[in-house]
Write a structure and sequence with these properties.
Layout (H helix, E strand, L loop, with lengths): L1 E6 L9 H15 L3 E8 L12 H4 L3 E6 L6 H10 L4 H4 L4 H13 L4 E5 L7 H7 L3 E6 L3 H10 L3 H20 L6 E4 L2 H10 L4 E2 L23 E4 L5 H21 L5 E4 L5 H6 L5 E5 L4 H7 L2 E4 L9 H8 L3 E4 L16 E2 L3 H13 L1 H18 L2 H15 L2
Parallel strand pairs: 1-2, 1-4, 2-3, 4-5, 5-6, 6-7, 8-9, 8-11, 9-10, 11-12, 12-13
Helix pairs in contact: 1-16, 7-8, 10-14, 14-15
């Protein structure tokens, strides 16, 4: 099967959920004998040269990178807000050079499946259908408008007004694109249900992001117990909001009771203002770590205090695969079908977060049991080879 994956950023390095979701599937396709091409926008924010991509990754697919600025400009955002009804988030990724490269690939290659990774490459569907007879697949990484709708609820004043307006624009945009594709592949069952309610009529297959369990190997030889940690992109607003909420509301209570306990915060691209906010006694800012899995293996209790966002949190999947005991909000654990108290602890407010931390810090048996159950859950439900095989079988039913 010949597959073209189209994405609005280069899926390497795999240091965020979107890149991991794309690259793990690329790897799975290759392992199952598919011939894969990845056409990616090489944006200013996530700029990567072909030379930076290691040979081990290049063996998985033919990578075609197209420079697309997709820069965020306050003046352009204002002009868009006043004179357009389209979401600024989407407009940034519509590019003539990218269209030319896409047409070039479609004219010289015949694909069975063209898989669009996320909402913001869906505007290219008409162009794809003009030059190809391949099945066009929308792989929905999340419900995009929901991210901004939830973010708006955490803000006040003009910022809430702007984000509410943006979420409504994205919802119109998202809804208008429904059924322009041939097949729908949501990453979570919840997202699939929402897209059906919005009007999806196409055949769909739920395909959660798989994990290569051979790469995620638990190792407790250097475990610091007890310890707390957060691992994730620190340029992503929902992570920033969640960390600050925890530090401002929960950490003072926890630190007072456990003054020697440390809360480690790791992730890439932390803005200066966030680093300043993390200068709190007992909080250790690690920044971008050289090896995320090695770092996670040395820490005990993983915190995911998310109150906005959408889709599925890949870092929770990875943490569970490494046998971590995780405390998360319902939004953080959304789409993973975890069981509270068995393979994860769910907390919705300050008292519940503090109580969950206390339980795991003081009960090593509970800590070990949650981690063991988490690891078994991932091995049973998120194996990348098995997940990809099911998706390929779905594609074979409808490929031309």
């Amino acid at each position: 099967m010949r597959i073209l994956q189209i994405t609005n950023k280069v899926p390497f390095p795999t240091k965020d959920g979107g890149a991991i979701a794309c690259m793990n599937l690329t790897r799975g396709f290759k392992q199952h004998g598919c011939e894969v091409t990845v056409l990616a926008m090489n944006t200013l924010k996530h700029n990567v040269s072909l030379g930076e991509i290691p040979d081990s990754i290049k063996k998985l697919a033919n990578f075609e990178l197209v420079d697309v600025p997709a820069s965020i400009n306050k003046f352009d955002a204002l002009v868009n807000f006043v004179f357009s009804r389209k979401p600024y988030n989407a407009v940034r990724f519509i590019d003539k050079n990218f269209s030319r490269k896409l047409v070039e690939l479609l004219q010289i290659n015949v694909y069975d499946i063209i898989q669009l990774e996320g909402l913001y490459v869906c505007p290219y569907i008409p162009l794809i259908k003009k030059y190809s007879n391949a099945r066009v697949v929308y792989r929905a990484h999340n419900i995009e408008f929901e991210i901004w709708e939830r973010a708006a609820q955490l803000e006040r004043g003009w910022k809430r007004f702007y984000l509410n307006n943006l979420s409504k624009r994205i919802k119109r945009f998202e809804t208008a694109l429904l059924n322009t594709y041939d097949l729908l592949v949501p990453i979570t069952g919840r997202d699939g249900q929402i897209l059906d309610r919005l009007g999806n009529k196409k055949e769909k297959h739920i395909s959660q992001t798989g994990i290569d369990t051979e790469q995620l190997v638990p190792n407790n030889t250097k475990l610091e117990f007890p310890s707390l940690f957060h691992m994730g992109s620190l340029e992503w607003a929902p992570n920033q909001e969640g960390i600050l909420w925890f530090i401002e509301n929960c950490w003072p209570l926890i630190h007072e009771k456990y003054p020697r306990l440390r809360f480690y915060v790791a992730g890439r691209n932390a803005p200066g203002w966030l680093i300043d906010k993390l200068s709190v006694k007992g909080v250790v800012f690690e920044g971008e770590v050289a090896d995320a899995y090695e770092f996670m293996n040395t820490k005990a209790i993983m915190l995911v205090p998310l109150f906005s966002g959408s889709g599925m949190r890949i870092k929770i999947i990875e943490g569970m695969a490494l046998g971590k005991s995780i405390i998360s909000t319902p939004i953080g654990a959304e789409g993973i079908n975890v069981t509270n108290g068995t393979n994860v602890l769910i907390a919705q407010n300050v008292n519940e977060f503090v109580d969950a931390v206390e339980k795991l810090v003081e009960n090593r048996e509970l800590f070990n049991g949650i981690g063991k159950n988490a690891m078994e859950f991932i091995h049973e439900n998120f194996d990348n080879l098995a997940t990809t095989a099911k998706l390929i079988d779905f594609y074979k039913q409808y490929s031309t």
